[in-house]
Amino acid sequence: MSDAGTGKVVVNRAMSLDGFIAGPGHAMDWISDYLTADAIPEVMAATGAMLVGRGTYEVAKRMSKEGTPYDGGAQFVLTHRPPDEPDPAVTFLTCGLEEAVATARGAAGGKNLEILGADVAAQCLRLGLVDEILVYVLPVLLGDGVRFSPPSLGRVELEPFSNTHAGAVTTLRFHVRK
Questions:
Q1: What gap in Å lies between CA 57 and CA 59, rounded to an integer?
Q2: CA 28 – CA 20 distance, rounded (Å)
Q3: Please, which residues have CB within 8 angstroms of residue 112's CB and are 6 or more apart in sequence?
Q4: Mean per-residue pLDDT, 71-99
Q5: Are the C-beta atoms of residues 80 and 49 closer than 8 Å to each other?
């Protein structure tokens, strides 16, 4: 997907050991118990923009008010229903997914485009738009919530290229086979 000299499209997510990226009620407060943006400076430095869905945007907005900010560059929200009150820190896109990815990649300035959220990530994977998957496996069992991927995603072949362990967090990185 990526051209030489341009960033990659990276699905980035924290995940409980039992495969959830959010707990019941889309709760994500458990993530900051183990992982903060300052713990992953190389990822933050490599990221130029983020593309998320409306649900992930709402959760992130709530977490930011609770003191858990995450700055991954220009923020784009793909939605069918932009909010009535604009958010000056965010660009809301109502176009198709491929156009949204191209727009956000253009704003990334040659750095990576991070895809956050279950639905947008699954759609990007389904269309072959993702280059890498980066997963922070956290030492917690949530029991229920939002799964890493929906059952409708289907099979996606991955090639592991890095795994590291720092503190309580295990980081797994995969290339998506095209």
A1: 6
A2: 10
A3: 7, 8, 9, 10, 46, 47, 48
A4: 90
A5: no
3-state secondary structure the chain: CCCCCCCCEEEEEEEECCCEEECHHHCCHHHHHCCCHHHCHHHHHHEEEEEEEHHHHHHHHHHHHCCCCCCCCEEEEECCCCCCCCCCCEEEECCCHHHHHHHHHHHCCCCEEEEECHHHHHHHHHCCCCCEEEEEEECCCCCCCEECCCHHHCCCCEEEEEEEEECCEEEEEEEECC
Question: Phi, psi at residue 107, to the nearest 5°?
Answer: -80, -15
> Tens of pLDDT along 4-60?
458 999 999 999 999 999 999 888 889 988 887 677 888 888 999 999 998 888 877
Q: Where exactly are the structural domains of the chain?
A: 9-176
Among 101, 124, 99, smallest CA distance to 176 is for 124
9-176: CATH architecture: 3-Layer(aba) Sandwich (3.40)
> Taking the model in full, what pTM does it have?
0.90
Using CA atoms, how far apart are residues 7 and 62, in angstroms rounded to an integer? 29
Cβ neighbours, 10 Å, residue 22: 24
Q: Based on the number of CB atoms within 10 Å of its own CB, is 32 exposed (0-12), middle (13-18) or buried (19 or more)?
A: middle
Q: Tell me which amino acid residue 88 is.
A: P
